[in-house]
TrEMBL record:
Protein name as catalogued: Uncharacterized protein
Natural source organism: Paenibacillus arenilitoris
Top-level lineage group: Bacteria
Length: 89
């Protein structure tokens, strides 16, 4: 089981990738920051991410970024709490 501190350290490796994807897709810094934060929060709580092989994690981060961004229009990004039922493919 991965502890809180280890999860935070691991997610720091993906912060830049996550933000880059979000800002590239959204073209707006404030929205991109919010989307990246939501993505990292989702991933933090997602057991599938922690079980994934290391090589699959960047692609997984990209997929979650895209999901968070696509769902932001449905409820508004600030209120968007996506389901954690997503499974790695």
């Amino acid at each position: 089981m991965v502890g809180f501190k280890e999860k935070v350290e691991e997610l720091r490796r993906f912060e830049s990738l996550c933000y880059t994807i979000c800002v590239t897709l959204l073209k707006e810094e404030r929205e991109a920051c919010a989307a990246a934060e939501r993505t990292l929060s989702w991933i933090f709580a997602d057991p599938a991410f922690w079980a994934a092989e290391e090589a699959a994690k960047p692609r997984y981060v990209m997929r979650i970024c895209m999901r968070v961004i696509s769902e932001r229009g449905k409820t508004g990004l600030a209120n968007n709490v996506p389901s954690l039922q997503l499974r790695a493919k």
